[in-house]
Every structure is written in structure tokens, then in C-alpha cells.
Amino acid sequence: MKLLFLSDYISPAIIQAICRTLLHSLWQGLLAATAAGIIILLTQKTKAAIRYNLLSLILVSLVACSFITFLKQPGVLHTSAPESIIHSSFLQQFQQTTGTGNAYWLSSGSEKFYTPLIYYADKYAGWITGLWMLFFVLHLLRTCAGLHYIHRIRNYQVTDPGDEWKQRLLRMKHHLGIGKAVAFMESGLVKVPVAVGFLKPMVLIPIGMISLLPAEQVETILMHELAHIRRKDFIINLLQRFTEAFFFYNPFIAWISARIREEREACCDDIVMEHTTDNRSYLEALVSFRELGAPAYGHAMALGRNNNLLHRVKRMITQENKKLNAMEKLTLILVLMAFGALSFIPAGKRAGMKKDNTGRQVISKPETTKQISVAVQGNNNWGYQTHQTNDTLPDKEPLKFENISSNIDDDGTIKKEEVTAKTKEGKVYHYRLLNNEMVEMMVDDEKIKKEDFHRYDDIVDQIEAGRKESAGKSLLDQKKNTAELLKKQELLNKQLMDLQNQQSQLKQAELEKQNNENMLNLQLENQQLMNQKLALQDKKMQELMEQKEKDQLLHYNKMQKIMEQNDKELGRKQKLFELQQKLEYMKDEKLHESDYELSRIIDELEEAGVINDENSFSFSLDDKELIVDGKKQSEDLHDSLRKKYVKHKKDYFKYKTKGNSRSTDIYVE
């Protein structure tokens, strides 16, 4: 079946090749994810850059493998290959029986669960490829939307952070060895620092971050963003997004890509820790952004996702890379067990095939008289042949199994089970259950008729008993692993709490030290003033000694009163000076808070869609009404903003912008 719009522009062979490539990428992705999991297990103590390079190499190899798979499909490079041949490099369910290369055979014993999958994939290749193209285009549109958003945050609501911070960024840029120019702006659209652009990189930080955080923490955050620019992570992340859009249906590629992003952030963290002497400031900055719950941006190089900031802090404290969680470890173990089980499956019917004098492969006759039908394809027609096989009925003695594996799929209504057991003698039993009822059975790749299932009841009972024993051991091991993971998680949480307590104690000690220094400086100034007063008093007393004792005593009393008044006046002026300083500080804080609230009001008006042109608009907000561009807005929007920003009846916000002119009028009690 083919979609009309595809068959008009793409040949059926290319459509079928794309469909098969998509199908092959699933098992190839599983192999790549398994290799990535093994690398993560073996690189707990290595540098993040090594782990990042290895995971990136796996992803690039996987993409290259898919491209090679597409080229090897019939009709891509070798257009003369017949479309009826089904290629499957990992299944090999069809085997060639003639020298012409266009006839395949399939015995009834080799019909696996993947045989109908391949059949229907080729049959409905047009529909599958068409749906894949549709969703691929949708993912590309989402990527384009992300690039448009990056263009928007680069050009709208950006302000100059000042020459001082630009000079600091320039020094850090040279310190990291970045040769190209890097722009630095404050943005009203971003909530966390981001680095955007490749040819013309730019670092954007939220408005007010410089004043809210200590300068040391701001410098470490800027160094993290410069590390992304030095590593050219923006263009690499863009290529990674395109790969995810192409393989959107593949969960293994999505998992590998997520691990690469985590290691990319760890690489930048290592660069910051290597080029700064105050590692504590960087850790405090990460913890601060996590407490703020700041979002992350997919296409820009942001500080990091909020749920990964804590893991990054733990990694820098413990010097250990991120490990696989319990579910990932369990999945990796199951996949490795499945690969190990498949490696022990015998070649089956290949052992019973030989070539005749014409070079064709034929099936040799065994010693028993049991016959099985074989379907042979030739010239697009199906015929049937028979060959004789050995009897698969086992002896009555109890069997000893070397390996028992099972796969269970239970959605609550239908329960499907596949069980494979191999004896120490090399005999393999495979059967399928549907809602606990046997529907298929095979012994050494030979299919057993349904009416003969009862002859193997003893064998099935022994296999089921072995499954229960293995399940009990697996559950016990899983509980032990879970307990160990919980203990490690509790230890990490305790270490983080200790770190936070130490940080709090250090902040308190620094505050007490600053207060003590201020008190000591004030005492020294008072002492100096007192010494000056005493020196003046001694001089005047010496002059008064020449006068009469009465005049001297009277003058002394007057001077004593004058000194007391001066002390009172000096104390009053000192208190007045301190009060003025406090009022100015409160005024600055209140003004800064009002500007921040004004920015938030503008953001909420933009989100509500009442601002038509963000470069030219006006609004006023008070306790009674909300007016935007001369129009009174709804009561619901007014009540929402009034509850957040109008704390008193006399408070109001007035703002107007047009081009480069801007006016602001704010009153807050």
C-alpha cells in the first residue's frame, strides 16, 4: 500500500528503503544505548570530557550506521535488485536456496514474532514513511520556533549591563582563550543566564541578577556560559536537535542524547572549577537558581535544567560522575541477559542444509520419518516441499536447564509470555502463552503441533518451576540493590544538608564580623573626637589659670555646660545622619523593588495578550482600574494584578514607551 502523494515524487524502492532503515534503527539504537550504559558504568571516576566524547562518538556512529543501512537497501544504489527480497541483517529469517539469489525459504519452525513485523513493514511502507515524514516536519517546525525565540531574546527587551561588567567579561573571555567577540546584555525575557549564537555569540542574563547575587557568583555563572561558547556547544546542540527530530520515534536515541546534554553541562562545570579559586561561590550560585525554580531553554545554552542542578552540585562535591538509576541498571541487565541468551541459540536448520551438484542449498534427510512442510518462493509463486526431522519428544528423566529466559507483556487485559529454556545437553525449548494458555511451542527450532502440546506437560512444568525460582532470586537481588541505592541517596542528602549548614554558618560569621568591624570603627572615631575635645579643653583651662580664681571657676562652669550641649548636639547629628543613611538605603531598595515589579507587570500584560506593540504602549495600574493604551481592561485581569502589586490604596504604577523614549511614574507606600 502506497500513499499517492509519496509515489508521485519518490520511487517505491526508496520508500521501502526508508521504512526498513527506520525499523533497523530501533535495534541499532538498543545496541548503542547498551554500549552507552556500559560506558557510564565504567567511567564513574573519569573526567566529564572523556565521557562526553565517548557518548558523542556512539551517537555519531549510530547515525552513520543508519545512513549506511539506507544505502545498502535494494533500489538505493543497486537499482536492479528485486523489491520482493526482504533484507534483514540481524534476523536472517530467510535463507537463499538457489544460485540466482531471488528465492528464499522459510520453514514453519522459524516463524518468529518478527516475521509478521517485517512483512507488514514492507506491505505498509508507504503509510509508515508518510507518517514519519509528517511528524519529522512537525519536529523541524518546533526547532525553527526555538531558533525564532533565540532571535527574539537577542533583539528585544535587552539593556546594557554597564562598562564595569563588560570589562570583567572581556577579562574572563581572554582567560578562557576565546578569540571571537562576545556580546553581553541584560534581558527582560530570560529567567536564567544563557549563551546563544555561533558566529556572533551573546551572553544574556536576567535583569537584576547582578544586583541580587554577589559579584563572585555572577562571575562564575558568566564563566559557565563562556565555557559553552569556547566549546562551540550551540552549533553542536543544534545538530543534536536535528538528529532527535529525525529519529523522534526512537527512545534509545532520546536517552543517549539526554545523557550527552548532562555531560556537556558537567564539562562546563569542570572548566569553571578549573579557572576559579572560589568554588564555593559557584556551588552557591547553582543552589540559588535551583531554589528560584528557574526554567531552562532547549536551543540556547542555559545554565541548566532545574532538576539537574542538584545532581551537578553533588557531582562536584563527591567528585563522582552521575550513575545509572535503578530502572536503567535493570534495563541494561535484562538487555545483556537477552544478548547472552541469543548468543547460545544454535544455528538450527543451517546444520541440516548442504549444496547439491548445481550449487543449490538443499535440506539433507535425517534419520526419522517425521515430516514438516516448507514454503519455497520462486518467480513470485509459493509451493511446498517436505523434509524429515528428528523426533523432539524428550525422555522422561528430569531435565537440567542451563538457562531459562522469559519476556512478559501484560497490559491488564491481555497477558503475553514468551519462554525459552536451554538444557545442559544443548536442547532448546521455546513456547508462547496467551493469558496463561499455550499457543505455540518449538523444540530446537522445530514447531510442535497444537494437538501434541500435552506430550510436553512435564517439560513445561519443570521450566515453570525454574522460572519461579529465578524470579525469586531476581526480586531479592533487586531489593538489595534498591536498599543500597537508598542508602547512597540518604548519604548524599546528608552531605548536601551539611554543606548548606556550613554555608549558613559562614554567612552568619561574616555578618557578625562586619558588624564588629563597624562598631570598632565607630568607637575609634568617637575616641578621636573625644581626644580633640580634651585637648581644646586643656588649652582653654591653661589660659583661664591666669585670671582670678573666681573668674576661672565661672568660666570653667560655662565651658562645662557648653561641652555638654555640644555632646548632645553631636549625638543628635549622629543619629540624624544614621537615620538619613537608613532612609536612603530603604528608598533605593524600594525603588529597585518597584522597578522589578514594573517589569513583571509588563511581562504579565504581554502574556495576557493586551499589549499589541511591545515597543510602543502605555498602561496605568492603581487600586481602582487597569488601563492599557487608553482602554480599560477586564476586572479579572485588574484584580489579578492589583492583588500582586498594589499593596495600598494610594499605590499606583504608570508606564509609557514609544520608540526610544520611556517614562515611568511609580508610587508605593
Descriptive account of the structure:
- With 669 residues, the chain is of the alpha+beta class.
- Helix content is 56%, strand content 16%.
- It contains 16 helices and 21 strands.
- It has helices at 4-7, 12-42, 48-71, 114-123, 125-155, 163-175, 209-212, 215-230, 233-246, 251-275, 279-292, 306-318, 326-343, 457-544, 549-608, 635-645; strands spanning 95-96, 104-107, 158-159, 183-187, 194-196, 202-206, 301-302, 353-355, 361-363, 370-378, 381-389, 401-410, 415-423, 428-434, 437-443, 446-447, 616-622, 626-628, 631-632, 652-658, 661-667.
- The strands form five sheets. The protein has a five-stranded mixed β-sheet with strand order 3-4-6-5-7. A five-stranded antiparallel β-sheet has the order 12-13-14-15-16, sandwiched between helices. It has a five-stranded antiparallel β-sheet with strand order 19-18-17-20-21, covered by helices on one side.
- Helix 10 (251-275) crosses helix 12.
- The chain is elongated and about 140 Å long.
- Mean pLDDT is 76; it is low at 80-111 and 347-391.
Features:
five-stranded antiparallel beta sheet, 669 residues, 21 strands, alpha+beta, 16 helices, five-stranded mixed beta sheet
Biggest sheet strand line-up: 3-4-6-5-7
User: What's the helical proportion of residues?
Assistant: 55-70%
Instruction: Outline the low-pLDDT stretches.
Output: 80-111, 347-391
Content-based structural category: alpha+beta
Beta-strand segment tally: 21
Large-scale geometry: elongated
For the residues shown, what is the average pLDDT?
76
Number of helices: 16
How much of the polypeptide forms β-strand, as a percent range? 15-25%
Instruction: Work out the radius of gyration.
Output: 39 Å
Largest sheet: 5 strands, mixed
